[in-house]
Amino acid sequence: MMLRTCHVLCSQAGPSAGGWQPLSFDGGAFHLKGTGELTRALLVLRLCAWPPLVTHGLALQAWSRRLLGSRLSGALLRASIYGQFVAGETAEEVKGCVQQLQTLGLRPLLAVPTEEEPDSAVKTGEAWYEGNFSAMLRCVDLSRGILETPGPTGNILMQLKVTALTSTRLCKDLTSWIRKPGASLELSPERLAEAMDSGRDLQVSCLNTQQNQHLQASLSRLHRVAQHARAQHVRLLVDAEYTFLNPALSLLVDALAMRWNGPGEGGPWVWNTYQAYLKDTHERLRRAAEAADRAGLAFGVKLVRGAYLDKEREVARHHGTEDPTQLDYEATSRSYSHCLELMLTHVSHRGPMCHLMVASHNEESVRQATKRMWELGIPLDGPVCFGQLLGMCDHVSLALGQAGYAVYKSIPYGSLEEVIPYLIRRAQENRSVLQGARREQKLLSQELWKRVLGPTPERACPGHVAVMWRSL
């Protein structure tokens, strides 16, 4: 199946020599996937678009385990939600998933499903964070090792969640301090970068002794992950989180960037994420891009719409502050479009010193990116790539991959106990994405219906028949 699929891809891939042609996201590339995969995708996406399941996911999981037992409940999850959105638990399972993606022209973006939620119980000691640090190092090694198999070449990327390595309480305190006048010198990226590199103790006046010790340990963990990733040629895409944490997270990312995104390092090894659903994102992105240019640093960006809308508005109401989010989805889309234009222009000017991931499930955003790449002369497999979640938006991912673009699928992995709570939190944060997957569901239904009735004459080409026969 994989060899035949690869042959079909090779025969269909490649841009038109006559100029830019708009990509068609009509599900035509679904013929590369098996009927079982498509059926599961349709059922799971319909389930995930049901609000009660998302809202009460953890309670329903606990109820299922009590009613059915852990073995049967686990088997059902593995055959459905876990199987749709997770690569597996063992290294071999992850490699098998990645090999399957590679035959479809897609690339992996591994994610360790570990983080500290702001409202969760405060972790005690450094043991929890040190355990996560070891998991991040293993993720670096796995990201490198799985691409030793044949497949698309290019950058090796992985996701990094800062709140897995440092406490949300510390990030809140640092954010409050950063926003005060006169705090810039004491908490400058230069000072943090020097502390990371030298290992010397860093004393910040707004923190107590225990907090300073935790900050020092957190800086050390972040630095060692970046150091190991650089040695393994793996680029780190740092996730953005809530606005009451992001200033501190950006400070830590800026410190890492000063150390690892220098002109002699070979492009950005540390990327930050920018959320277009926040009102100030375009201005922050513009300032950050210009600052990196002035400093001669490589600049890496993952551009997303954002996922914490309800929480952000709730916090703003609770504190009586201005809502930091865009008015509605249309305003968010306009913000994304402006940020995308800004970054593509920077990429065209700075070349390999500026990298961008267009992390979007929105077809219009993807079309805008591909058209502007052609107009600006940015190569398909150059410093701009695309990203979508594993198990979602395959009609866009497959079309991009077949056309020769660099496309990454965000891939969590781990045990059921680790991943299911993570998936439910992501689903709660991405309700609009899940509920907006109706078009993908329609395309999946159409493809499955065609398989029931048989291929229409215009689709009954030899390559298509071969793939269909092997997939059924």
TrEMBL record:
EC code: 1.5.5.2
Every Proline dehydrogenase domain range: 193-435
Pfam family of the protein (one): Pro_dh
GO molecular function terms attached to this record: FAD binding; proline dehydrogenase activity
Cofactor list: FAD
Coiled-coil features, chain-numbered ranges: none
Biological process terms in GO annotation: L-proline catabolic process to L-glutamate
Alphabetized InterPro entries for the sequence: FAD-linked_oxidoreductase-like, Proline_DH_dom, Proline_oxidase
Keyword Signal: no
Organism superkingdom: Eukaryota
Gene Ontology CC: mitochondrion
Catalysed transformations (reactions): trans-4-hydroxy-L-proline + a quinone = (3R,5S)-1-pyrroline-3-hydroxy-5-carboxylate + a quinol + H(+); L-proline + a quinone = (S)-1-pyrroline-5-carboxylate + a quinol + H(+)
Function: Converts proline to delta-1-pyrroline-5-carboxylate.
Name by which UniProt lists this protein: Proline dehydrogenase
Species assigned in the record: Ursus americanus
Protein encoded by which gene: PRODH2
